[in-house]
Amino acid sequence: MQLSELLAMPAALPSIPKVVALLMSELNKPEPDLRTVNQLVNTDPGLATRVLQLANSAHFNLSGRIGSVSEALAILGMNHVRSLVSTAALSGAFKAVPGIAMQQFWRYSLDVAKISRALAGNVRENQGTAFTAGLIHAAGELVMHLGMGEAVLALDRTVAPLDPRRARAEQRTFGFAWGQVGAGLCSSWHFPQQIVDALQYQHAPFDNDAYEPLAGILHLATWRARAREAALTERELATSFPDVVGLALGLDIDAVLQQDPIDWSSGSEAAMFA
Length: 274
Fold this sequence. Notes:
Hypothetical protein af1432, 64% helix, 0% strand, 274 residues, mainly alpha
């Protein structure tokens, strides 16, 4: 399958059932709490993309593009958000993705978002945009599994979806990887160009004509989160650390390892993925 064919297919990303249920409960209150709604949407890559897609649509005809959920919610208002969440509940919240352990995928995506936000703060990049990019950075992997059938499942049997080597294996096998799929979707949804470029070049940050620091941040954040999922040893961490990308951002391995989301996840967040 060609990348253009995959991007032309409908892309309805699944949402976390418990998050959808909590949002429905909050939004049905006479006066929903915007902070609670924002926190809940920011745990769910599927809902975050829906909210940002609508905020950046021609319906609102904004002069600039919206790159964070909090900005999007301020523009949409509760009625639009309520409609989006209802649609997610009906069409996407309970969808299984062949070959993907969704609880692990959701937890991993939130880990990358948190690490990206922390690293962005260290290098004085926009933390809200970095969090959004981290949260949705691997949406392309879901789309590949939903649209490519046995071809992608065959690769799963040799290189797991969250294996640190996955992007290279996909590029070699299909001619594109999950980052390019996500970038193509975000471009079609009129997301900020910074996010599109970051997703496009997260696997190889220096391949872009103009280096985008957010791509480097995503590269380091995914390295850290996937290394955690793979339970790499200290030696394996040291030998696999992308030091050239770190050098460009002024970050060494210790600075990246300090941004470890293991200690950040609250009990309530962990319960979301149970």
